Amino acid sequence: MPPPRTRGTALRHRLAELRGPDVPAKALDARALAALAANPGCKRRAILDGAGVNKAVLADALGSPSAFGQSQFAFMRGNAFEAKVKADGGAELLRLVHEKLDPGAEPPTRARVPELAAIGPEGRAARTALALREASEAAAWTLLDHPMLALDVAGSPAFLEPDAVVVHPDGSWTVVEIKSFPMLDGSADPAKVGAAARQSAVYVLALEEVAAQLKPAPRVRHRVLLVCPKDFSNLPTASAVDVRKQRAVTGRQLARLTRIEDIADTLPEGTCFAPDRPPAELTAAVESVPAAYAPECLAACELAFHCRDRSRASGAVTTLGRSLRAELGDLTTVDEVLSAAHGESGDPDDPAVAALRRAAELRAEALRDAAERRGQAPGSATELRLVEPLESVTGGGAR
């Protein structure tokens, strides 16, 4: 008789069914994990990422292709720059770590570079954990090139691969992130640096889980090394980035995620996100999982266009932004907002309703004054010009 399924085995089997029996799983990387942590209320993204669904392929099958992707030229340039940084056993990389993060330590004249190859992500993660332990005990500079780290995300393991992890002579660990965007006069694009910091914070969280299993637990440094090309050359330069804030926010948001098995248990029997399913069936499967769309999703999720269309069609106020949604309290649709503003519904004691009605009064007064000055009847052309922008945002106009 086959051995009984454990809870973990049953979950992996269930996620494979959701993904499709012949569809390979897409690994959940740190960039996707940081985006997931930024929107922990989206169950749709949580279950799709947990099941290893390729959301770009899924978006194409739904008829709402994403604008994501990296050009082949940028990909090759990034790989070439990373190879240059790690050449000669990582001598230049370790020099930058010593200069920016640990100038008081002995200079890294020679470093250990352990072999991390193993079978499968689980094997590589175990080999990485062993190499980290040995490096901490050796009390010498050690470079781990593309180690594999495991991080529990809502009950499902995610395997992450940072560019490098450096072990210092004092046994502490540092995450190294190598990017191909330039650092001009010692500074880089703040948006790109912020994205790199959020990504590095995920690696710090994963390293802390590894460190917690060792006695005594090594220190995981919260200042990571960001390595970029200097000015317009291909020479590497670096900057220390403190990711304590990003690490705290990401850890808190990941803890808020609903567990993957709880979301899977709510799905209808036979739900499958395989892209070869009929379009109507695939759309029904995606719509069976609640989403939490916001305009920020356009820069972080491959399904953003699909979710935006559905959000507009339902008149959800989140289409207009999370900050506005927070201001409106219990009013979740544009129809509810307009009804409350016109005095047709809503509790007058509700601050949001009171503010909407006051705004409607001011708007009506402004329209009357403008009509009197121009000799027009209140409404008609002036009012139409004010209503059109709202219709275009909420779905009444063109995409």
Poorly predicted tracts of residues: 1-5, 381-399
Largest sheet at a glance? 5 strands, mixed
Portion in strands: 5-15%
Order of strands across the main sheet:
1-4-5-6-7
Overall structural class, as computed from helix and strand content, comes to alpha+beta
For the termini, the CA-CA separation is: 57 Å
Treating each run of at least 4 consecutive H or I residues as one helix, how many helices?
Answer: 16
- What is the helix fraction of residues, given as a range? 40-55%
Mean pLDDT: 84
Give the H and E element order: HHHHHHHEEEEEHEEHHHHHHHH
Give the tags:
single chain; 399 residues; alpha+beta; five-stranded mixed beta sheet; two-stranded antiparallel sheet; 16 helices; globular; disordered N terminus
Structure description:
This protein is 50% helix and 10% strand. With 399 residues, the chain is α+β, with helices and mostly antiparallel strands. The strands form two sheets. The protein has a five-stranded mixed beta sheet with strand order 1-4-5-6-7, sandwiched between helices. Strands 2-3 form a two-stranded antiparallel ribbon. The radius of gyration is 26 Å and the shape is globular. Residues 1-5 and 381-399 have low confidence and may be disordered.
Helices and strands in order:
Elements: H1 7-19, H2 30-38, H3 43-50, H4 55-62, H5 72-85, H6 87-101, H7 120-138, E1 142-145, E2 149-153, E3 156-160, E4 164-167, E5 173-178, H8 190-212, E6 223-229, E7 236-242, H9 244-256, H10 260-265, H11 279-287, H12 304-314, H13 322-327, H14 334-341, H15 351-374, H16 380-394
Parallel strand pairs: 5-6
Antiparallel strand pairs: 1-4, 2-3, 4-5, 6-7
Helix pairs in contact: 2-8, 2-9, 8-9, 14-15
